[in-house]
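Form P-L/3: holo structure prediction, ligand glutathione.
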Amino acid sequence: MLTLYHLTISHFSEKARWALDYKNLEYRSRVLTPGLHILTTRRVAGSSTVPVLVDDDTDTVLSESTDILHYLDRIRPDPPLFPVDAELATAVVEVEDLIDVGWGADASSFAYCHLVQSPRDLRRRWSVGLNVLQRGLLFASMPLITPALRRRRRLSPEAAPEYRAAAMRTFDDVEGRLVANGGEYLVGDGFTAADLTGAALLGPFVRAPGSPWAQDEAGQSPPELLAFREELKARPLGQWVLSMWERYRR
Ligand SMILES: N[C@@H](CCC(=O)N[C@@H](CS)C(=O)NCC(=O)O)C(=O)O
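OUTPUT (holo model):
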């Protein structure tokens, strides 16, 4: 049996969830509490991040989203995420890696630079998908978690433009590849791990309908994040992300 340890609002977790659902695989979902997730991921996988996938049947523990996608492609080849054609497969891995490394952390650090300014709002966002006990734990641990997050990820309003600029360099690069490939898919002429990764990791920033980030309707985003969202949605890649959610995720 497969078990996925994840955070509802984590875009890397969404990458793994999407892959499991795309392949129509059954799995046990273990939603963790932000900040406290590390107690579980350390115990299960010796890692500090989510997602973590465990396959009891093969004694496999994976703590990198890319490894999870490759593993799922091996145990459930159809529908494929990585093309059989070696050249296309290499291109898919390259784009997936580009988005993971060049967008994943920088775009999220940019958002958190602003979100940590209001711990109350942050708690509201992090509460999506948590049960009552987890909400209580989150409430109690916020005064410790928020300063630790600020320090560890070097989050401040002053640092935000640098993270934003770094993320946008990747955005421009990926958008260029999308347009050069005809505008429908990032690589080749079908849905691959590259598209799934792009749509999952950019999903929070365009607040894709049907995504966990669209569930938090109550709160208002900081103006910097609202402006970022509008800027992305006005671009071909932003529109493409929304269309991927519509076509492949809902
Ligand atoms: N390279 C990892 C990155 C995963 C990652 O950064 N996950 C974030 C959530 S989106 C996380 O767990 N952050 C918590 C932490 O760093 O303590 C992967 O692809 O799985």
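COMMENT: Residues 86-115 form the longest helix (30 residues).
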